[in-house]
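Forum: Protein Structure Q&A
Topic: Joint prediction for protein chains with partners

I've read a bunch of threads here and the consensus seems to be that you should model interacting components together rather than docking separate models afterwards. I'd like to see that in practice. Below is the full input, 224 residues plus whatever partners are listed. Could one of the regulars post the assembled result?
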Amino acid sequence: EAGVAQSPRYKIIEKRQSVAFWCNPISGHATLYWYQQILGQGPKLLIQFQNNGVVDDSQLPKDRFSAERLKGVDSTLKIQPAKLEDSAVYLCASRRAGVKYNEQFFGPGTRLTVL
Amino acid sequence: TQLLEQSPQFLSIQEGENLTVYCNSSSVFSSLQWYRQEPGEGPVLLVTVVTGGEVKKLKRLTFQFGDARKDSSLHITAAQTGDTGLYLCAGPNDYKLSFGAGTTVTVRA
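Posted by a regular:
Agreed with the consensus. Here's the joint model:
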């Protein structure tokens, strides 16, 4: 079974530029998460999708961040415009339906550096 | 929001030594998970503990869930260089997972 795929793996941009990240979850996993992991911290949930609907985006800075999962499979996360404090690893995770303890499978992440 | 505090923040040991990392909270959790994150990779689930007082073993790793379900520990026996990584604990917070800040473990050859 293929794991969660993410691209690009690394991205360097200047502040005020735009950037987009892509995620393809494990086949059949209905739930998809985007996390932000700042150096020295644990992952922080940005947004959770169930199929193509948003379950929770309370921690997403909506003035600059957006995310979509149009067909209920892969997803994109966009930042526009980027700020210095957005430098972090952006992790995508997925979970199959029916798991009892919310065990999640993570992709390798995209490391974003904003200069 | 239920907070998870992990200690120590950093740990560096020689190969063959033992180590223990801790995950503590003032709140009761119905379950706790431990993940390991290697440099440049995403977290990988190691174990889920669900019963107060539970002890689970995964080869050289021993996980314990406190009797009151407010704390957990991870003990590694005879650490190897392949154990190097960031160890994260996570607990359910409503339908989400809340992560601790992690313990960075470095095992020197």
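Chain B has no helices and eleven strands.
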